[in-house]
């Protein structure tokens, strides 16, 4: 694809939901695989030092692909909300540049903000308004014409339709969170940010949210969610980024990351200690403890379970007996420690 054509396509006026799909579904261009599409969000050299002097982001570079579900994973205080705040124009960056659909977020604030829906981490709602009024008003804030049909669809998607005439203050915490999502979708954004959407929500809402996110992705919306739950990233994301102390330490396809993260260990206490690993067991990924009394087998959660059967068969054939065994799964903590070690 020539540069001119790229520009032409990205400069198309913002259109709701399906705009991006239209681009993807355009007549196939053999020279232009989808991967070559310019990123929907591009973050370069982004740093943030708060007025307190605290540095929350350190030269972050990150590209979000069109139409993907991207999970930004990191412990509390890592800088996730700060990063989202900058892209949404709520927090001002100290250094660096962010573009959304090719437009600089500062030079073209209204244009880029209009493309984005944000579901904030904290519950912030207008207590006295009704659900319907809140969501409709939110749409108006972006200068869009009223569209009761769209508002109705959004409320129905979020199981809020029955509550449309209720004042926000009468709703449960879970329902208020649904209202925040409805507000974020009121202006048909192309990019949706969900900041810790499922922290402390019930199972039903979590599942509804996951279903909604997938449906949005199917409509061509790019979804960026932050979480400190590995399971959530595993369940939802196409790609995962890990942030720690303001630094992006890893960005990877989920499948690849889960292969690395989902490590498990099986430890066998042997009946009699070994001097060395028998050569017949060399094909297995085994570690012998210093005193020769324990064998540890490390495997990942995806697809290596059959390895255990083979290992046990080979142990038996080698005449090794064990008196006890333990399994252990790497925790999120271990994973972060491992990642940090790896990058050091
Ligand atoms: N307005 C602020 N002033 C000073 N420090 C802040 C401010 N907002 C956030 N921080 C600090 O910046 C760090 C990153 O915060 P945040 O982006 O909220 O992280 P996360 O969302 O990953 O938990 C934290 O240490 C937090 O205390
Ligand atoms: Mg946060």
UniProtKB/TrEMBL annotation:
Cited PANTHER family: ABC TRANSPORTER ATP-BINDING PROTEIN
Keywords recorded for this protein, A-Z: ATP-binding, Nucleotide-binding, Transport
GO molecular function, one term: ATP binding
InterPro entries registered for this protein in UniProt: AAA+_ATPase, ABC_transporter-like_ATP-bd, ABC_transporter-like_CS, ABC_transporter_ATP-binding, P-loop_NTPase
TM ranges: none
Region (Disordered): 1-22
Protein name: ABC transporter ATP-binding protein YadG
SUPFAM superfamilies reported for this sequence: P-loop containing nucleoside triphosphate hydrolases
Database matches in Pfam families: ABC_tran
Family: Belongs to the ABC transporter superfamily.
Residue ranges constituting the ABC transporter domain according to the UniProt record: 41-270
Superkingdom of origin organism: Bacteria
């Amino acid at each position: 694809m020539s540069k001119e054509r790229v520009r032409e396509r990205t400069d198309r006026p913002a259109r709701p939901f399906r705009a991006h799909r239209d681009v993807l579904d355009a007549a196939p261009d053999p020279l232009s695989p989808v991967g070559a599409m310019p990123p929907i969000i591009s973050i370069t050299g982004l740093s943030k030092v708060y007025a307190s002097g605290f540095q929350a982001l350190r030269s972050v570079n990150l590209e979000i692909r069109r139409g993907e579900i991207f999970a930004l994973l990191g412990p509390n205080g890592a800088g996730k909300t700060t990063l989202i705040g900058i892209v949404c124009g709520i927090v001002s960056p100290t250094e660096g540049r962010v573009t959304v659909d090719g437009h600089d977020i500062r030079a073209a604030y209204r244009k880029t903000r209009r493309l984005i829906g944000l579901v904030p981490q904290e519950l912030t709602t207008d207590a006295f308004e009704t659900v319907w009024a809140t969501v409709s008003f939110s749409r108006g804030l972006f200068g869009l014409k009223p569209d009761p049909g769209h508002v109705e669809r959004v409320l129905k998607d979020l199981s809020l339709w029955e509550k449309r005439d209720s004042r926000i203050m009468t709703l449960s915490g879970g329902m208020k969170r649904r209202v925040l999502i409805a507000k974020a979708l009121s202006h048909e954004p192309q990019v949706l940010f969900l900041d810790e959407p499922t922290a402390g929500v019930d199972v039903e809402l979590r599942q509804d949210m996951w279903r909604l996110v997938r449906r949005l992705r199917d409509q061509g919306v790019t979804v960026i969610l932050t979480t400190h739950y590995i399971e959530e990233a595993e369940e939802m994301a196409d790609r995962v980024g890990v942030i720690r102390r303001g630094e992006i330490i890893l960005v990877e396809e989920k499948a690849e990351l889960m292969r690395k993260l989902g490590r498990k260990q099986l430890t066998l206490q042997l009946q009699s200690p070994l001097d060395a690993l028998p050569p017949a067991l060399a094909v297995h990924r085994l570690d012998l403890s210093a005193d020769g009394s324990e064998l540890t087998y490390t495997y990942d959660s995806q697809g290596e379970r059959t390895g255990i059967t083979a290992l046990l068969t080979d142990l038996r054939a080698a005449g090794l007996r064990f008196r006890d065994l333990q399994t252990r799964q790497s925790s999120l903590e271990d994973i972060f420690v491992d990642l940090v070690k790896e990058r050091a």
